[in-house]
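Narrative of activities, Objective 1.

The group set out to show that a structural description can be obtained from nothing but a protein's sequence at a throughput compatible with the screening campaign. Below is one input-output pair from the validation batch, recorded exactly as produced.
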Amino acid sequence: MDGSATPRTDAGLQPERTALAWQRTAISFAAASLLFLRWATHHGPLVVVLVAAALATATWTFFHTRTRLRRVAHHFPMPGLEPAAGEVLVVTTATAVLGIAAVWVTLTT
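Output recorded for this entry:
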């Protein structure tokens, strides 16, 4: 390699693929959170609160990434686009909380 930059030939498909991946993540997160409803009779309102929080996170992720795609797609070839650090932090935290809650619910059933 001579170190020269290769021209981009992707006319906006990368942001769309990324948005689709985020949407799959949101849908998977919503489906996993609905599995908690199985334990609603044993643990009561706590499980309902967890499901509501998880569905709210999934909904926010789904719609926020659509908005982000529209904003980023217009400026995609330009360097210096900001990374989605906020979205990653929200989904990572929500996934960790959901995982810890799943372990707790399974062990105390």
